Amino acid sequence: MNIVIRADAYPEIGTGHLMRSLALGQAFKDCGWRVTFVTYCESPGLIARLSAPEEGFDVLLLKDKSDTALPPHKNSWAVADGVAFDSRLHKSMKDAGYKLLIIDDMAALDFYHGDIILNQNLHAHSLRYNHKDGTRLLLGSDYILLRREFMRQMGIKKIITDKCINILITLGGADRENFTQKVLNSIKTLRDIKITVVVGAGNPNIESIKTVKTTAPVTIIQSVNDMAGAMASQDVAITSGGTTVWELAFMGIPSVVGRIAPIEDYLVEGLNRLGLFIDCGWFKTATEDEIRGNLLKLSANMKLRKEMSALAQRLVDGHGRDRVIEAMRART
Q: What is the mean pLDDT of the chain?
């Protein structure tokens, strides 16, 4: 089967859409399917990853984010994952002969032309999608997409210890406003810990982040290809409300979660209702004392961390990509 994936990454929208589509693309490759990424991507690190021989993708780089051209295909699938993609783009994919899987977070369009609509978020069931007859909806955490490196951690239960030594800070692929540095500043005086800061390939602030002087040792990593490996040894994390929260949940890592973008408000609210993570509010307005206080509150409560970890690993079982592929096969 031939699959075309249309997803972009640039500062205004971050890298989450393309990284989520990467997870699905890897699942397609594991099925033996040919996968072509059509992308407007401003991150050289992400372009390098998509183009790596071990991934096995064909990659078509667009020069303009408004470019909607796709080669015509019959009986092939297209995947569209982008907050800036509208109904006209989706219809053009259908008109080109594709079956269409739309990955969407907000049901904000007037009409959805997809054969399948996927929304992996906890708030998905509360949204109303206006779609054509016969469209299948894949809604909720049963369909969370995880990349191949996380599949290698399948079935490993997180061991929660009484002391929190290893602290992970990871705020998505771009973090244009450099909240990573704010978070690092908030814990720079803490002792008896080890800090790991993971920044995405599209983060322009790494040199500034490196200037923060901390009491505890800190390791700063950019463009991690094995995020699961980087997470595995961590006791707690501070993160933003994007797709990374699902990766942390799968790994069973108790976390403090803050909001960066408006869409994250819906995701974090859903997490709150389940008691999955500690809500830090908006990173823009949260003080360094509040960020540090939330981390210390979580670190000091082993019982709470155990409950969060167990709940998170029950919620995200790692089979989301398999369920999506089953749905696509049923429509082929």
A: 94
Architecture of 151-315 per CATH? 3-Layer(aba) Sandwich (3.40)
- Asked whether 309 and 253 are in contact (CB, 8 A), the reply is yes
**How many whole angstroms separate alpha carbon 280 and alpha carbon 286?**
7
Q: For residue 102, what are the β-bridge partners? A: 80, 117
What letter does residue 142 receive in the DSSP assignment?
G
The predicted structure's pLDDT at residue 250: 98
**290 appears as a binding residue in the annotation:** no
Every domain of the chain and the residues it spans: 2-146+318-330, 151-315
Number of H helices, E strands in the chain: 12, 13
Confidence of residue 88 (pLDDT cuts 50, 70, 90): very high
pLDDT at 303 over 90: yes
List the structure tokens of 301. 């409560």
**In the CATH scheme, what is the code of domain 2-146+318-330?**
3.40.50.2000
Determine if residue 259 is labeled as part of a ligand binding site.
no
Q: How deeply is 270 buried, as exposed, middle or buried, from its count of CB atoms within 10 A (0-12, 13-18, 19+)? A: buried
Task: Tell me which residue of 78, 76, 110 sits closest to 92, measured CA to CA.
Answer: 78
Strand 278-282 to strand 136-139: parallel, antiparallel, or no bridges (unpaired)?
A: unpaired
Active site residues: 17
